[in-house]
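Standup notes
- DV: blocked on the single-chain target, sequence here:
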Amino acid sequence: MHNQATLRVIACAGLWSALAFVLNLVWEISHVRLYTIWMETDGLRIARAVFHCSLGDVVIALATFALAGIALWRADWPVSRPWAGGAIAVIGAMAITAWSEWYNIYRTGAWSYTSDMPTIYGVGLSPLLQWLIIPPVIVVVYRALLPFLFGKSGGRHADQTHGGRIRKGIMEPVLITEAASAAARCDLGGNPRLRD
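- DV (later): unblocked, structure below
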């Protein structure tokens, strides 16, 4: 049972990560000209930097997905609690990004902005907008793709045993009851339930 539940959580996180990679890659490509790397190096290095930054964005997205799941005690929060989870993901990602931009520009000098980058208190507006816009878009696309990828039941069977009882034809919801546990679940159909 724990292996199946773990696979459901991994599937939810995998879908979130895949969507985050695609959307953030598009964003990174579109705003790379606002960084000085655009003028300072060749196309291959720019491509590597965009890919590297997109992978970093996936880490941020996955961390905020987990943060929202832990805060809401649900790995299925994009379906069951999209507003609350989305707000947690946006706030968390914007906080991480604001710190990362400030640290990498003013502390390490790892990158810098061109004069075209609008800033708020010295932090680029484009990366902040990225995390204001992309998590809600991920939630919408995630919710749309879930039934398509996993069917109406989310890949679960209609006849299920819960605490020794069989509930025929009822899609039982799933809730994370042990947030730090590897036994956390995600019902890919988006229906929360307390574990028996």
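- Follow-up: The two ends are 13 Å apart (CA to CA).
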